[in-house]
């Protein structure tokens, strides 16, 4: 499942998804927005956090399809 599809399914804002993943800085929501739109790909360490936060519904392969 792609990250943005996960976000929409759970009815989360970008900020809420950033908090769920563990991005607590003030640019967390814009970072998540970039990941959801495909303009950026998360680093390996963040991919692990995304996988854990989404209970394995979003994995590394979802960013490379």
**What is the string of SSEs from the N terminus onward?**
HHHH
Q: How much beta, percentage-wise?
A: under 5%
Structural shape: globular
- E-strand count: 0
Radius of gyration: 10 Å
Structure characterization notes:
With 65 residues, the chain is mainly alpha-helical. It has 4 helices and no strands. It has helices at residues 3-9, 14-21, 28-37, 44-53. Helix 2 (14-21) crosses helix 3 (28-37). The longest helix is centred in the middle third of the chain and has 10 residues, at 28-37. The radius of gyration is 10 Å and the shape is globular. The mean pLDDT is 93.
Write a concise synopsis of the structure shown.
With 65 residues, this protein is mostly helical. It has helices spanning 3-9, 14-21, 28-37, 44-53. The model has no long low-confidence stretch (mean pLDDT 93).
Features:
single chain; 65 residues; mainly alpha; 4 helices; globular
Topology:
Layout: H1 3-9, H2 14-21, H3 28-37, H4 44-53
Helix pairs in contact: 2-3
């Amino acid at each position: 499942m792609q990250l943005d599809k996960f976000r929409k399914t759970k009815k989360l804002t970008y900020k809420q998804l950033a908090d769920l993943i563990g991005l607590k800085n003030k640019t967390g929501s814009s970072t998540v927005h970039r990941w959801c739109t495909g303009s950026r790909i998360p680093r390996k360490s963040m991919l692990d956090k995304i996988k854990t936060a989404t209970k394995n519904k979003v994995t590394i392969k979802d960013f490379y399809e």
